[in-house]
C-alpha cells in the first residue's frame, strides 16, 4: 500500500489556448511563405535587433524565414521575460496588428535571422486579399490574445481591495476590453503586503494600476486608463468618415462589420467596451449557430475582431456628447472634446438598466450592486446568497449562471411570474433549480452595509411580509432607459426617449424602417423605438441598415 498522495486531478479546459498550440503558433507552408513575401521585403536582422516594442502603434508583421524571434516583456527592473519564440515559417503579432492601439509586448532577433517585414498598410492589404492565410492569422491572433489574458502577460497589475467599487470598475473595464492584467486583491492576496510596502502605498490611495513601463496610476478614470494603455485610437479631425457608428453593442458591431466590409470608411465610438448590455451576459444560448451557447463578451470580441479585420476603427472609452445635424457632413462632439465628421451616422447606443428607488442605493452601486453577471462578478459570490432583480432574459441568464457559484439565488419580480418576459428555456431552468428561489410580487425596500452591501430586505406587495437576508451582491436588471441624451436637439424621440424611426416628421413612411427624422442618421437595436430587445434582432438591424446608408450616400447608384 503506497503512502504517496494521488496526483492532483487534471481538469480539461476546452477554452485553454495552450491546448491549441499548433493553431496559436502555426508553421506556414512554403507556398504561403512565398505569397506573404510578395507583400513585404526580406531583411537580415543581426542578433539583438529590436523589431518592435511595447507601446508602439502600427507595428509591422514579421515572418521568420531563418533564425528566431523572441517575444518578451520588460519588468520594472529592466529585465526581459521571454515568453514566446517564433522559428522558421512562423509569424509575429496578435490582435493589435488589426488596429492602431499600443501593442502589448516587444520583439527582438534571438540570433542572426532572416525575416520578411510586412508594413502595417501592406499587412491589411494581404489579409484582405489572401483568404486562407487571413484565416490562419486571425485564429492565431485571437488565441494569442486569450493566452496573454489568461497568463497575465503583456498587461498591467491592478492592486486594490477586491470588493471596492473602484477596483471592480477598473477590473471590469480591463476584462471587457480584453486587456491582460493581474489583480492583487489586498483583502485576501498574500502578495498584497509586498506590493503595498514596495510602493509605499496607503489604503486610501488604492486601487492603483502599475504598468511594466513604470506607469503608476492612482485610481484613474476609465478614460485615463484607456489613454495610458493606448486603447484609444487617435482621431483625425480633418477626416470625413463615410459612416460613424455610435455604440458597440451587437447592433453597432454588426453595422461596423457590414459597412467596413462593403468599403465604407467606418469609425465606431464606444463609451465602455464592445458588447453593450449583451457583453455582460454570462451565456447566450438561443443565439443562432451556437448550440452550446456563447458568452456575450466572447461574441462581442469576435465581432470586434471581424470589424477591425475589414478596416473599421474603434474609439473606446469615448462617448458622443452631442451631434450637430444642422448641416452635412454631420459633426459629432465627443466627451473628451474631440470632433468627428461623418457623412452618415448610425445610432446604436442601446439602453441601460434602470435603477431601483431605494434609500442608500447609490451608496452601494459598484460595492455590492451590479448590472452584469460575468465570471468577474461571480468570483465575489462564491458560497454566498445573492439577489437578482428582474424578469427578462438578462436576469434569467444571470440567475442560472450564479446558481452554479453562489450558495443560493433569490430572483425578485414585481409581477406574477416570468413567462411573459423571459424565454421559456430560462423559465424552466429556474423552476427546476434547487439553488434558485423565485419571489413573485416582491420588491426591494431596504439595503444595509458598511463600506459595501451586507444585507437586503424585500417586501411581498400583497401580504406585506418582510424578508431580510445576508446578501452582499445584488444584480439589478430591470427595464431599460435609452442612451439618447446627446440626441434630443436633433432627432424625434418617443415619450420614453427611444429614437423614432421609419416615419418623417409629417408622419409619412420613410424608405428605411431604420431612418430617423433627420436624413442621413439611422437608428438600430435597443435604442430604436419599437425594436425587439434581443441580440439576434439587433445584429439583423445592424446588418440591414447598411443598405439604407449606401442609398443615402449614393442615391443615384442602383
TrEMBL record:
Residues 24-144 form the Cyclic nucleotide-binding domain. Keywords: Flavoprotein, Oxidoreductase. The keyword Flavoprotein applies. The keyword Nucleus does not apply. It comes from the Bacteria. It is found in: Cytoplasm. Its main location: cytoplasm. This is FAD-dependent oxidoreductase. It comes from Dyella halodurans.
Amino acid at each position: 500500500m503506497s503512502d504517496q498522495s494521488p496526483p492532483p486531478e487534471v481538469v480539461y479546459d476546452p477554452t485553454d489556448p495552450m491546448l491549441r498550440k499548433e493553431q496559436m503558433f502555426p508553421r506556414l507552408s512554403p507556398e504561403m511563405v512565398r505569397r506573404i513575401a510578395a507583400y513585404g521585403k526580406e531583411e537580415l536582422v543581426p542578433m539583438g535587433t529590436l523589431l518592435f516594442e511595447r507601446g508602439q502603434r502600427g507595428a509591422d508583421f514579421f515572418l521568420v524565414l531563418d533564425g528566431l524571434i523572441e517575444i518578451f516583456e520588460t519588468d520594472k527592473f529592466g529585465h526581459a521575460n521571454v515568453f514566446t519564440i517564433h522559428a522558421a515559417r512562423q509569424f509575429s503579432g496578435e490582435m493589435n496588428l488589426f488596429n492602431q492601439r499600443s501593442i502589448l509586448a516587444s520583439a527582438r532577433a534571438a540570433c542572426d535571422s532572416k525575416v520578411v517585414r510586412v508594413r502595417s498598410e501592406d499587412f491589411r492589404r494581404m489579409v484582405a486579399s489572401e483568404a486562407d492565410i487571413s484565416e490562419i492569422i486571425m485564429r492565431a491572433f485571437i488565441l494569442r490574445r486569450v493566452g496573454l489574458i489568461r497568463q497575465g502577460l503583456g498587461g498591467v497589475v491592478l492592486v486594490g481591495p477586491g470588493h471596492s467599487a473602484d477596483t471592480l470598475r477598473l477590473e471590469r473595464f480591463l476584462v471587457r476590453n480584453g486587456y491582460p492584467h493581474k489583480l492583487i486583491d489586498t483583502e485576501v492576496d498574500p502578495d498584497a503586503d509586498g506590493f503595498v510596502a514596495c510602493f509605499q502605498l496607503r489604503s486610501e490611495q488604492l486601487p492603483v494600476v502599475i504598468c511594466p513601463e513604470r506607469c503608476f496610476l492612482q485610481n484613474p478614470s476609465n478614460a485615463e486608463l484607456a489613454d495610458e494603455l493606448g486603447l484609444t485610437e487617435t482621431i483625425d479631425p480633418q477626416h470625413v468618415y463615410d459612416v460613424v457608428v455610435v455604440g458597440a453593442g451587437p447592433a453597432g458591431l454588426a453595422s461596423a462589420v457590414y459597412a467596413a466590409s462593403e468599403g465604407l470608411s467606418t469609425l465606431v465610438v464606444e463609451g465602455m467596451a464592445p458588447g453593450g448590455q449583451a457583453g455582460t451576459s454570462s451565456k447566450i444560448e438561443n443565439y443562432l449557430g451556437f448550440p452550446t451557447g456563447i458568452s456575450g463578451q466572447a461574441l462581442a470580441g469576435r465581432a470586434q475582431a471581424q470589424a477591425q479585420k475589414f478596416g473599421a476603427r474603434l474609439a473606446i472609452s469615448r462617448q458622443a456628447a452631442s451631434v450637430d445635424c444642422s448641416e452635412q457632413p454631420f459633426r459629432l462632439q465627443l466627451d473628451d472634446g474631440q470632433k468627428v465628421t461623418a457623412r452618415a451616422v448610425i445610432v446604436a447606443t442601446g439602453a441601460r438598466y434602470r435603477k431601483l428607488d431605494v434609500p442608500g442605493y447609490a451608496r452601494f452601486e459598484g460595492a455590492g450592486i451590479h448590472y452584469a453577471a460575468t465570471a468577474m462578478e461571480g468570483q465575489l459570490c462564491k458560497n454566498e446568497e445573492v439577489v437578482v432583480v428582474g424578469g427578462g432574459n438578462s436576469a434569467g441568464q444571470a440567475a442560472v449562471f450564479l446558481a452554479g457559484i453562489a450558495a443560493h439565488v433569490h430572483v425578485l419580480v414585481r409581477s406574477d411570474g416570468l413567462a411573459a418576459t423571459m424565454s421559456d428555456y430560462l423559465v424552466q431552468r429556474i423552476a427546476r433549480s434547487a439553488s434558485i428561489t423565485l419571489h413573485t410580487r416582491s420588491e426591494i425596500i431596504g439595503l444595509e452595509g458598511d463600506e459595501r452591501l451586507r444585507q437586503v430586505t424585500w417586501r411581498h406587495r400583497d401580504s406585506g411580509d418582510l424578508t431580510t437576508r445576508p446578501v452582499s451582491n445584488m444584480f439589478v436588471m430591470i427595464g431599460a432607459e435609452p442612451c439618447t441624451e446627446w440626441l434630443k436637439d436633433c432627432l424625434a424621440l418617443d415619450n420614453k426617449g427611444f429614437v423614432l424611426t421609419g416615419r418623417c416628421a409629417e408622419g409619412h413612411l420613410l424608405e428605411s424602417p431604420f431612418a430617423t427624422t433627420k436624413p442621413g442618421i439611422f437608428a438600430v437595436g435597443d435604442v430604436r423605438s419599437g425594436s425587439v430587445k434581443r441580440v439576434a434582432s439587433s445584429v439583423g438591424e445592424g446588418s440591414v441598415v447598411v443598405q439604407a446608408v449606401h442609398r443615402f450616400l449614393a442615391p443615384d447608384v442602383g
